[in-house]
Design brief:
The structure holds 2 protein chains of 2 kinds.
Chain A: H1 2-16, E1 18-22, E2 27-29, E3 37-43, E4 45-51, E5 56-63, E6 67-68, H2 71-76, E7 83-86, E8 90-96, H3 97-104, H4 108-133, H5 137-148, H6 154-167
Antiparallel strand pairs in A: 1-8, 2-7, 3-6, 3-8, 4-5, 4-7
Chain B: E1 2-4, H1 5-26, H2 31-34, H3 45-67, E2 78-80, H4 83-92, H5 119-138, E3 147-149, E4 157-159, H6 160-180
Antiparallel strand pairs in B: 1-2, 3-4
Helix pairs in contact in B: 1-5, 1-6, 3-5, 3-6, 4-6
Classes of the chains: A alpha+beta, B mainly alpha.
Chain lengths: 168, 181
């Protein structure tokens, strides 16, 4: 079910999405803006981060093949807490919130696929909380790597987790 | 300088409100304009702002730490400037002729010349909000007896009132520089 959902979603990105090129450091979304899109990263990398008066804290990274946005803002239609920035030259495809919502409600199969996706995202968020609460930096790095390498390549997982370790 | 806490803090808050407006106005300019250097030695507007952020990184946590847990005093308490603190604070202000005394920034407070984005201004605005909160808190603290460390040397500590004046005047100084850049 989920497999078809993702295949159909990818097709939607390819057929109806808007392509955009970002240069290094270009901002895709700023704090305070309402997230109205879902981004598929075709090449390059982006980071989602929180800006405080003293530092930038990385929340999430997106690599080639990732789907990413400022999720809470997208779901609640509230101002985004986060910035999204291209880490290098990055090619993305954009679907609007309306396109996504239409797609989800197009068929019961899509709705089921979406539910399964949300459930897995929720469960991953709990893994994430545990990773972040692990007191030893070495264990935190190991846990992060183990979780991430299920989803992205080993090289990407390594970079991803080292960037987080660097932050802590 | 000798004045009531309330009068000093109101003056500094008014200056910070202006500073916020001025920084917001800078955001309207193009990135190219904000990164422009009029000579190899001079700073771009974004370098000026980033320089302020580097100072904020030191002073905001220090001010917060020293204000924390201090007994409350009446806002009419008199703040009396120290000799050195008063000198440093006034050094930041424009001269009577309107020109600024030229100074050289310490190496660790000199921001990299390239790769600066509008995020520097966003971070400055967050620091400005934090400073305004701290100023409000400071109104009910003895600004003469409370001391803070300074970024230049560990040898001396300044009176909180002078540090707050220095930080605010320093912001005004570099905002003016950023507007000219």
């Amino acid at each position: 079910m989920t497999k078809n959902f993702f295949q159909d979603l990818m097709t939607l990105f390819q057929t109806e999405g808007i392509k955009k090129s970002l240069i290094k450091d270009e901002l895709l979304l700023k704090e305070g803006q309402v997230e109205n899109s879902l981004y598929l990263i075709e090449s390059g990398a982006v980071r989602v981060f929180l800006l405080s008066e003293l530092e930038e804290t990385n929340i999430r990274f997106g690599y080639s093949g990732s789907m990413i946005n400022s999720l809470a803002s997208f779901l609640r239609q509230s101002p985004s807490e986060f910035y999204i920035e291209a880490l290098r030259k990055t090619e993305i495809i954009i679907l609007s919130r309306t396109q996504i919502l239409n797609f989800i409600h197009q068929s019961s199969a899509h709705l089921e696929g979406y539910t399964a996706f949300i459930e897995s995202a929720f469960a991953q968020q709990i893994d994430r909380e545990i990773d972040l609460l692990t007191p030893s930096p070495a264990d935190r790095l190991g846990a992060c790597f183990e979780t991430q390498s299920k989803f992205i390549s080993r090289d990407s997982a390594q970079t991803h987790c080292l960037l987080f370790a660097h932050d802590s | 300088m000798k004045t009531e806490n309330k009068i000093l803090i109101n003056d500094l808050l008014a200056r910070m409100n202006q500073a916020t407006q001025r920084a917001n106005a800078l955001k309207e300019k193009t990135l190219e304009h904000l990164n422009h250097k009029s000579s190899a030695q001079s700073w771009s507007a974004l370098q000026c702002i980033e320089h302020l952020n580097l100072y904020g990184d030191f002073y905001l946590p220090e001010i917060e730490k020293q204000l924390a847990g201090k007994p409350k005093v009446n806002a009419k308490t008199i703040f009396k400037s120290g000799v050195i603190g008063n000198y440093f604070a006034n050094l930041m202000l424009p001269k009577k002729t309107g020109s600024l005394k030229k100074m050289k920034a310490p190496v660790d407070k000199t921001p990299a010349s390239s790769d600066l984005t509008l995020l520097s201004i966003d971070r400055f605005l967050k620091q400005a909000e934090k400073l305004k909160q701290l100023l409000q808190q400071a109104e009910q603290v003895d600004l003469t007896k409370t001391k803070t460390a300074i970024s230049l040397t560990k040898m001396i500590r300044l009176r909180m009132g002078d540090t707050l004046r220095f930080v605010v005047y320093h912001i005004e100084r570099h905002l003016a520089q950023a507007e000219r850049a």
